[in-house]
Structure formats: structure tokens, C-alpha cells
């Protein structure tokens, strides 16, 4: 057989049953991505005779005799197709994992299809952008600034440096490489929610030709650790082993088979004979602390950072300022309700996975899809008792993260297999494994009590929170602490009380997720503010203005924190409220709706600390090259968060050059230095400060070198347009590099940031909705978000972060939901049954920025990666309540959930 791929003939015979996607990737067409295994996401889209198809659904042999076009061949001899250029001009991508498939679909659209993009793009999912920039690309809109003067990069809409490679399919993600002698890992997973492994019979599995090793708990170190990665280990309980003899949720790893192919490994997994002793399972978090409840981790103690294993308590928090009970008793108005949040999957289109091998120097190399390569290296070093210089962890481009890749879900088993077999190994999770065996957002029950006086001033706020961390405690304590902190610290109130519990259950673990606990608590707090305002006849905007913190006010939530480094680096919350109010009141065309539709407005605000407590470390290094350009090395990873762009903008601005003169290396522990990781809103705020410090130091070195050559006062030297200037004298950076080389003193500098003090960011979301009182259908008529991001480092890119955050949060608020049955099994572990937002589901969001400059962040900037997510569900819930007069307390707000209450109120 032979196949025509991008105009070239490949005489190749596919394997029996091989899909076209895998066949093309084996031929080096790495632009064809694996995202869902089921034809749901479109990341594997190729053109067959000019028509877009999902190549994961096409048997490879059926493509014989047809013209196959992948993203690598779309541009033909010219190299760049007009649609590829349109995506560059609009910057219609973030992580870029979906981009190749999206471009191929968009390039094939005819004029009729362009009139209904919701239908035309229903087969292609983007988890990052919110789709507005993709629409811009289709309509030929340019969002980038073509030319920016030297030293003027910061604050401008400059394109991502990897853009050309992303749109041409040349950007390399975790598995876009070939390694000779590669073995494959497949994992046998537990069918039981709670069981002890009595024995594992490997004999039949080892008899399968091509099996190299079968690893069980007997082969794994006895070390207890956490999959969560933080700079400070005390933030996370130690309750996890690589492979354990007790399984605590359906989907937990039981054994790892290492074989010549995935097929062989899967067959060997099927032949493993495991004998289990079934243990009582705990599925309901409400029962977790009840006397006599099954114990998930009975042997864990405070030495493992578990609060009370005999009550299934991972952590608890209690505190009170003032006297809440007395304040509620004397308040003019009060509100009390219980809210429930649900499980949501990160759904990054690139699943967890990685490659591991030992090099000639005996260094363990791990290439994975991670937000935290340096912390993962440290963990592997400790678990396997390897010197740090014998472990290297790195990532290239990461296909989405959203907090899910602040975990170590694959690197440990990869390391174990590589060390045992001394062969390169690969582990790539399927989409189903991503659902059943990684992590989710923490489901929470939040009970709120609130009171206000007759003037609308808050008198009392009380939160009682129960957080379900699942079978393991990764991130459980810190997510709960975060949930009860900024959600009420943003409001001035003399009486506050918090009681919080994090409990184990025998369900899939919860972990870090964009917003980190705040979306779950904010929906309750912001509902209370709205309900108090309604009782008092005060507008929701004015109610918030009367109660928000202002510069100089303490940001307090009980109990008193031991960390006092959160400051008002800048303050734009008042501007954000004003911006949203003006936008929501502005005239706009009104849709024609029948009397069955009820309309309403809703808003919500949030505050977020722009770095975690207890330190977040970032190092940066920069050096002058002989050509007058610069090499910048940072540790932070790029997964659509835009840090690659912003770091170059910072360095170029400080060094009076252009971003194309800054060559970036990142996210590789072999480069030296340290970086805690790209999480907790730190990629710009913390790591960017390290880049600023390094560039500032190098700028001083450049001026000193020129002053030494001219024998003049260094104070008279400035950097201007890629030169050092002093009066009428000019010396180019290339000349400086030559002088430095001849003197044997390379010009280089280092910078560091420790993540303290911290600042705060603010976001306000507004919605106008229509709710059909007969069906429960919701239509979003208007979406506005205002953000205080300090000096906006890259307006185009930052706007994309806000749009993407709103889109992702709307998915969770309207329909995304992981369903767990009574046995603890995930019943919808694939995109088709989970409903990720597609183009037709996402409204355009108007994004507005407050005008502030942060005194702490780099060049006045603050973070804006996770905070746009936080107010969305709360604002939507308030808008639905305004429209219907019914307070719904448990998203997702699906029509079938709304219908019973609407029917009770409005009838047929």
C-alpha cells in the first residue's frame, strides 16, 4: 500500500486496526494530535481530499488513494497558508494543542459555512481561548501590533514567539519526538473503590511476547508522598505511594506493564490476576466524619500532615472575629443558605504523560507535560534517593494545564520503569484515564449566613465549608484555606466566622484547579450579598461599594493568618465595578423574545492573592550574545498562559531592544537555577520579576562596560535603541559583546524573585440572561468582565486569558459535570458525555481593564491567568435569580435542574 501525504508518496502498510491518526504520527506528522480517542475534540483533524475528518475515527487503510493533508503540508511550497497567517494575525491560540486541527477545519469552510460558525466548528474544541480570537481569525481581523520600537515592548499586543511553529504544526509537545528502543507502559487500574491487594499473579501476563517488566507495590519505594507539588512540602499531606497494596478509588494504579508496544502492554494487563480483599467504601462526604464511618487512611497521623485520620479529616480550620451569632440576631436583614459545587475535569487537550530514559552519564531524564518541572525533579530525587544532579525534568510546549499539571501523576511511574528496565519508556494517559485517575475540582458544600444593617453595611459573614478531597489529600488543605480567605476578606465586616473541613472519600482525588477553591465559595458569598441587597432595596452595585475593602483596610478572614505579606500593590476594584455597571446599562440591541422568556442581570466580584503564601521562587539568567541579541533562561513553563511572550517583553523593555532579539530557553532543570512552577498566578508576577531583576542587572553591566571603554562616568550612560549612549557617543550591543569577549568577561546577569510581598488582583463579572420558564433553557444575552491586572503587559494576550477563563467557567456553571455513581465510579469519562463548551456555547465577553500600576509586580503588572474564572458562576447564579426570582444553589444550571422549580412557580 502507499499513501499520498502532503504531496509525498509513502509506501507503507498500516498495522491491522490502526487508525489514521496513529499512522500519520508514526510517519512524523506530529501536527496531528491525540486529544480524546473518540472523535470528539478535533485535535487530530486532517484533510482527506480537501474535507476535514477526525483521523482517530478513520481506519488508516481507508485513506489509501486519497490526498491526505496535515497541518505541516497545508501551506504548500510557500510555507504559510492564508488561514495559518490569519491565526497568527489574530493570535487565535493559547496552548496551541487544538490549533492544527482548528486551522485545517477553518481553512476548509465555504462561505455558507462561515455564516454559521457554531455548526461549522462543532467538531473542534478549544479549551483555552474562549473562541473569540478564532472567530477573529476567520474574519481576517488582526490583533497583533506589527512593529514596536526598541524598549517599548511592555504593554503592547505582541505575538507569542512560538506562534509560527504552532500554526505550522512544528511546535513540539510531549510526544512529538522519536526515541529509539522505546518501551510502552500501560496501567492496570482498580475496579474497586476500596480494597486490599492480597496477591498479584503475573505469570500469564509475563508470558505475553514483548513484555519486559511488570511492576507492582512490591517493586515501588515505600516512600509516602503527595502528587501535589508546592515549594513547601508542609502544604500537602503525605498519603500516596507510587504503587500501593491498598487501593482507595476506582481507577487507582494497581500495576504497570512495560512492553514493546501499547497493544502488548494492554493484553498483559488483561492477563494479570489480582486477588482483592474488599473493604468498606465511603462515597458520601457528609458521612465521612460520622462515628463508625469507614476509614480511608487509618494509619496516617499528624506526622503525615493529616489532621485526624480517625475522622477522615485531612485538614480543618476554625476561627472567628467578633461575635457572629449576636450580630446576626440584631441585623436588620439576614440570609442563610447551603450551596453545593460539583466535580469538574480540567480537560486539557493534551493528557498527562511523559517519556523517561537514562542517558550515558546515568542521568534520569523525564520529559513530561507538567507545570512544575523543578518540583517534580525534587520529588523524584527524594523518592528514588538520587542526587539532584542525576535527575533532569523538562517540558517543551504543554497542551493545557489549568492546575491539573501541578501534580505528579505519571513522572513517578515513568522513573520507576526507566530505572528498572534501563530502557526509554513512554506513558500517555487515555482520555478515560484522565477522567477516572488524575484529579478534579474539589466538590464543596458551603453553608453561608450573612447579615446587614438598614444602611446596607454588612454585620456578619459566616462560612461552614465541607470539601471532598477524594481518596488522597493532594491540595486539599490549601484549596480549602484559599476558598475561605479572599472570598470574605474582600468585604469589610466586623463579625466573621469560618469553619472548614477537608474529608477523605473513596472517590477520584480532587486537586489544583484554576481559581483554587474560590469559585466554590464565591458563589455562596456573592449570592448572600445580592439577597441582602434585594431585601434592603439597594442595587447590587451599591451594596458592594458600601462593603468592599479599600486601600488601608485590613484584608481579613478568620483565623488570623501567620502570613502578613499581602498588600494593595494596586487597587482597581472600584473601577471594575464602575466599568461593569456602565457596560451593563449601555444601550444595545435587544433580542426578540416571547413571553416565555424571563430576563435578569447579575454581577459578582472576586479578589485573589497573586502568589501562594510561604514563598514561590523563580530564578532567571540573561546573557549578551555576540550578535547583540540576548539569551534569556527561565524555569517557568508555557502552556497557554503567555509567559513566554511576557518574559521577552520585560527583558526587551529593560534592555532597550526588541523582542525578536531575546532568545528564550525555559522549563528545563538542566538549565540551572530554580523555579517553583507556573501556578498560583505566578508566571508573570513572580517569574517575571526574576526576569526584570536579571535584565536590570545586565543593563547595569552593559553601561559599566561602555563607561569602562570610554573612561567616562557610568551615570552618564543610558540604553537606547540597542545601543549604550553617553552624550554623542554610541556603542552597539554587538560591539560591547566583542569587547567583553576580548576581555574574557562575558556580559551576563542573574535575577531572583521569592514571591513576597504579594499583591491582590480583582475581577468583576456581569451577565444578562434570559431563562425560558417553560423549559429551563438559559441564553446569555450579555457578558462583561472588568479586571484589575495592573499595567497590562500584553493587552491582546491578557484579554484572551479573561475570555478563556470566562468560557471555561461557563462550561462548569452550565453543563460540565463529572458524575460519580453509588459505587464511586465515574460514569461519564469521555468528552461526548461530559459536554465541553464548543464555539456555539460561548458568548462574546466584553473585557475591560482598570487603569492601575502595581508597586510590587514587574513593571507594574499583576497576574490574570486564573482569576477571570472565579466570579463567573456566582454572577450567572445572581442573573438567573434576578430573572426568575428563584435562587438556585447547585450548579451546573442545566435546564432539567431548573425546570422543577420553574414549573412549581410558573406552572405549565
Automatic annotation (TrEMBL):
Residues 1-74 form the 2Fe-2S ferredoxin-type domain. The keyword Calcium does not apply. It comes from Bradyrhizobium manausense. Gene3D superfamilies: 3.10.20.30, [2Fe-2S]-binding domain, Aldehyde oxidase/xanthine dehydrogenase, a/b hammerhead, Aldehyde oxidase/xanthine dehydrogenase, molybdopterin binding domain. SUPFAM superfamilies: 2Fe-2S ferredoxin-like, CO dehydrogenase ISP C-domain like, CO dehydrogenase molybdoprotein N-domain-like, Molybdenum cofactor-binding domain. Keywords: Iron, Metal-binding, Oxidoreductase. Pfam families: Ald_Xan_dh_C (PF01315), Fer2 (PF00111), Fer2_2 (PF01799), MoCoBD_1 (PF02738), MoCoBD_2 (PF20256). The keyword Transferase does not apply. One of its GO terms (molecular function) is iron ion binding. InterPro entries: 2Fe-2S-bd, 2Fe-2S-bd_dom_sf, 2Fe-2S_ferredoxin-like_sf, 2Fe-2S_ferredoxin-type, 2Fe2S_fd_BS, Ald_Oxase/Xan_DH_a/b, Ald_Oxase/Xan_DH_a/b_sf, Ald_Oxase/xanthine_DH-like. It comes from the Bacteria. This is Aldehyde oxidase. Belongs to the xanthine dehydrogenase family.
Amino acid at each position: 500500500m502507499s499513501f499520498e501525504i502532503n504531496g509525498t508518496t509513502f509506501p507503507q502498510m498500516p498495522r491491522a486496526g490502526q487508525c489514521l491518526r496513529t499512522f500519520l504520527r508514526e510517519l512524523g506528522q506530529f501536527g496531528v494530535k491525540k486529544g480524546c480517542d473518540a472523535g470528539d475534540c478535533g485535535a487530530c483533524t486532517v484533510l482527506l481530499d480537501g474535507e476535514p475528518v477526525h483521523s482517530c475515527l478513520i481506519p488508516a487503510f481507508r485513506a489509501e488513494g486519497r490526498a491526505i493533508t496535515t497541518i505541516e503540508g497545508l501551506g504548500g511550497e510557500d510555507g504559510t497558508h492564508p488561514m495559518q497567517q490569519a491565526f497568527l494575525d489574530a493570535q487565535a491560540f493559547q496552548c496551541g494543542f487544538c490549533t492544527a486541527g482548528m486551522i485545517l477545519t477553518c481553512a476548509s469552510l465555504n462561505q455558507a459555512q462561515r455564516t454559521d460558525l457554531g455548526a461549522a466548528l462543532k467538531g473542534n474544541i478549544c479549551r483555552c481561548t474562549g473562541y473569540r480570537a478564532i472567530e477573529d481569525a476567520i474574519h481576517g481581523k488582526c490583533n497583533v501590533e506589527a512593529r514596536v520600537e526598541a524598549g517599548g515592548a511592555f504593554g503592547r499586543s505582541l505575538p507569542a514567539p512560538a506562534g509560527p511553529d504552532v500554526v505550522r504544526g512544528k511546535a513540539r509537545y510531549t510526544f512529538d519526538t522519536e526515541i529509539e528502543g522505546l518501551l510502552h507502559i500501560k496501567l492496570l487500574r482498580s475496579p474497586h473503590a476500596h480494597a486490599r491487594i492480597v496477591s498479584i499473579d503475573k505469570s500469564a501476563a509475563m508470558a505475553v511476547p514483548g513484555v519486559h517488566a511488570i511492576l507492582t507495590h512490591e517493586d515501588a519505594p515505600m516512600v509516602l508522598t503527595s502528587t501535589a507539588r508546592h515549594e513547601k512540602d508542609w502544604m500537602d499531606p503525605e498519603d500516596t505511594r507510587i504503587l500501593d497494596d491498598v487501593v482507595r478509588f476506582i481507577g487507582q494504579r494497581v500495576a504497570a506493564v512495560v512492553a514493546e508496544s501499547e497493544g502488548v502492554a494492554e493484553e498483559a494487563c488483561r492477563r494479570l490476576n489480582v486477588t482483592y480483599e474488599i473493604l468498606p467504601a465511603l462515597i458520601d462526604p457528609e458521612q465521612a466524619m460520622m462515628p463508625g464511618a469507614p476509614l480511608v487512611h487509618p494509619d496516617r497521623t499528624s506526622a503525615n500532615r493529616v489532621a485526624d485520620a480517625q475522622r477522615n479529616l485531612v485538614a480543618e480550620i476554625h476561627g472567628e472575629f467578633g461575635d457572629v451569632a449576636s450580630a446576626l440576631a440584631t441585623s436588620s436583614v439576614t440570609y442563610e443558605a447551603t450551596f453545593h459545587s460539583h466535580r469538574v475535569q480540567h480537560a486539557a487537550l493534551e493528557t498527562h504523560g511523559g517519556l523517561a530514559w537514562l542517558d550515558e552519564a546515568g542521568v534520569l531524564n523525564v520529559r513530561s507535560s507538567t507545570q512544575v518541572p523543578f518540583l517534580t525533579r525534587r520529588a523524584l530525587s527524594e523518592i528514588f534517593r538520587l542526587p539532584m544532579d542525576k535527575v533532569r525534568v523538562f517540558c517543551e510546549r504543554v497542551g493545557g494545564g489549568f492546575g491539573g499539571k501541578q501534580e505528579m501523576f505519571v513522572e513517578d511511574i515513568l522513573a520507576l520503569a526507566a530505572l528498572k528496565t534501563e530502557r526509554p519508556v513512554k506513558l500517555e494517559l487515555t482520555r478515560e484515564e484522565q477522567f477516572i485517575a488524575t484529579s478534579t475540582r474539589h466538590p464543596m458544600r458551603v453553608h453561608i449566613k450573612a447579615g446587614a444593617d438598614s444602611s446596607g453595611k454588612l454585620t456578619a459573614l459566616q462560612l461552614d465549608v465541607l470539601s471532598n478531597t477524594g481518596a488522597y489529600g493532594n491540595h486539599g488543605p490549601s484549596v480549602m484555606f484559599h476558598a475561605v480567605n479572599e472570598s470574605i476578606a474582600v468585604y469589610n465586616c466586623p463579625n466573621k466566622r469560618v469553619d472548614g473541613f477537608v474529608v477523605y472519600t473513596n472517590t477520584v482525588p480532587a486537586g489544583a484547579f484554576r481559581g483554587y477553591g474560590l469559585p466554590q465559595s464565591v458563589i455562596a458569598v456573592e449570592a448572600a450579598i445580592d439577597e441582602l441587597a434585594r431585601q434592603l432595596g439597594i442595587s447590587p452595585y451599591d451594596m458592594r461599594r458600601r462593603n468592599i475593602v479599600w486601600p488601608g483596610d485590613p484584608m481579613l478572614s478568620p483565623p488570623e493568618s501567620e502570613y502578613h505579606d499581602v498588600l494593595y500593590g494596586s487597587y482597581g476594584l472600584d473601577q471594575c465595578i464602575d466599568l461593569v455597571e456602565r457596560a451593563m446599562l449601555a444601550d444595545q440591541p435587544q433580542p426578540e423574545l416571547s413571553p416565555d422568556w424571563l430576563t435578569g442581570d447579575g454581577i459578582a466580584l472576586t479578589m485573589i492573592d497573586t502568589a501562594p503564601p510561604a514563598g514561590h521562587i523563580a530564578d532567571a539568567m540573561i546573557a549578551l550574545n555576540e550578535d547583540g541579541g540576548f539569551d534569556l533562561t527561565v524555569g517557568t513553563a508555557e502552556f497557554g498562559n503567555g509567559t513566554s511572550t511576557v518574559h521577552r517583553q520585560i527583558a526587551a523593555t529593560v534592555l532597550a531592544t526588541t523582542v525578536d532579539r531575546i532568545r528564550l530557553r525555559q522549563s528545563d532543570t538542566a538549565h540551572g537555577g530554580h523555579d517553583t512552577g507556573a501556578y498560583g498566578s505566578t508566571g508573570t508576577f513572580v517569574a517575571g520579576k526574576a526576569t526584570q531583576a536579571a535584565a536590570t542587572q545586565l543593563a547595569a553591566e552593559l553601561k559599566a562596560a561602555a563607561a569602562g571603554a570610554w573612561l567616562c562616568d557610568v551615570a552618564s550612560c543610558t540604553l537606547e535603541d540597542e545601543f549604550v549612549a553617553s552624550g554623542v557617543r554610541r556603542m552597539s550591543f554587538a560591539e560591547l559583546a566583542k569587547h567583553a569577549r576580548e576581555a574574557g568577561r562575558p556580559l551576563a546577569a542573574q535575577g531572583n524573585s521569592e514571591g513576597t510581598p504579594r499583591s491582590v488582583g480583582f475581577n468583576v463579572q456581569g451577565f444578562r440572561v434570559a431563562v425560558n420558564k417553560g423549559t429551563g433553557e438559559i441564553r446569555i444575552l450579555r457578558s462583561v468582565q472588568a479586571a484589575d491586572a495592573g499595567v497590562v503587559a500584553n493587552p491582546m494576550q491578557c484579554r484572551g486569558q479573561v475570555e478563556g477563563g470566562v468560557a471555561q467557567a461557563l462550561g462548569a456553571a452550565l453543563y460540565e459535570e463529572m458524575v460519580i455513581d453509588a459505587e464511586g465510579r465515574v460514569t461519564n469519562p469521555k468528552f461526548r458525555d461530559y459536554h465541553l463548551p464548543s464555539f456555539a456555547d460561548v458568548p462574546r465577553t466584553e473585557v475591560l481593564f482598570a487603569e492601575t500600576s502595581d508597586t510590587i509586580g514587574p513593571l507594574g503588572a499583576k497576574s490574570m491567568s486564573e482569576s477571570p474564572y472565579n466570579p463567573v458562576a456566582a454572577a450567572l447564579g445572581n442573573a438567573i435569580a434576578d430573572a426568575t426570582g428563584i435562587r438556585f444553589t447547585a450548579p451546573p444550571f442545566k435546564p432539567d435542574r431548573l425546570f422543577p422549580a420553574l414549573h412549581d412557580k410558573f406552572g405549565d
